[in-house]
Amino acid sequence: MKRKRELAESDTAPRSKPKEHSEDPSGARRKKVASKEDINPDIGMMDNRLLADYVAQRTKRFGEDLSLVELEDVHIPESAIVDTSGWNRERQTINLPDFLTHFAQFDARSTDLSLAPMQPGSPHTLVLTGAALRAAELSRVLRKFQKKDATVAKLFAKHIKLQDATAFVEKTRINIGVGTPSRIIDLIAEGALRLETLERVVIDCSFLDRKKRNIFDMKETQRPLMQLLNKESFKLRYTTTGSPIKLIFY
Question: Which of 127, 119, 190 has its CA nearest to residue 156?
């Protein structure tokens, strides 16, 4: 009887299914395909005049404490903005290196983005974004331009003390700096980040965060960005013909 009872229980008990193999025949793990990030496609359709108006509108929105004269003083001239509306690819993170290479070829000063100026802490390109995690993501895709004597530098505050960042920038030849406006303002004030060789400032503004906001949609990111872009050392070179700084909206 005992033996019959054990056989009956074994017949009614749920049988475990054989484990499905999570590896392909070659033994390599299958990688999940990353979904596309959210972007605002309207940014890529704007020419330099429309972008200048867009920046002015956002400045007025968050400049409730500024007078009309002060608002006019923080205006970005459309002549300083590169017209990138002819770029016909999506402004996803992965396309940023090709985007920069494409528009660098129209600038006779530094068409090879993998070369760094001789003076430490003197990048030819700055990439500005609204958050440290986003800056880290952008710096990863831009590493294709990094060489032994040309560093793609992370310039943001998260987990990096200003003292340590200053020491790093002062001794490092940098071709491209990627960071947040607030940290870059601090590094300029410390005298570590030099602007003499700066040729272009790339603004990461098509990217949208989880709340569908870009760098111009939040006061805590828009105000530092405009503070940086309106520094005297920037503004004087927006209109010069000698060694201008060009603004590129991605």
Answer: 127
Locate tokens 């272009």: which residue? Answer: 200
For residue 185, give every residue at least 6 positions away whose Cβ sits within 8 Å of its Cβ, in sequence order, or none. Answer: 224, 227, 228, 231
Residues in the chain: 250
* H/E element, 246: strand 246-249
The two structure tokens encoding residue 119: 């003076």
In whole angstroms, give the CA distance from residue 1 to residue 141. Answer: 71
Q: How many CA atoms lie within 13 A of 141 on its CB side?
A: 15
Single-letter code of the amino acid located at 4: K
Phi, psi of 188 (to 5 degrees): -70, -45
Tens digit of each residue's pLDDT (9 = 90 or more) over 48-64: 999 999 999 998 888 77
> What's at 102, amino acid-wise?
H
Report pTM.
0.83
The residues with which 154 forms a beta bridge, in sequence order, are: 178
d(CA 107, CA 246): 10
Confidence of residue 158 (pLDDT cuts 50, 70, 90): confident
Do residues 145 and 96 lie in contact, with contact meaning Cβ atoms separated by under 8 Å?
no
Mean pLDDT, range 137-148, rounded to an integer: 96
Does 74 have pLDDT greater than 90? no
Q: What is the DSSP string of 69-132?
A: HHHHHTPPPGGGB---TT--S---GGGHHHHHHHHHTT-SS---TT---SSTT--SEEEE-S-H
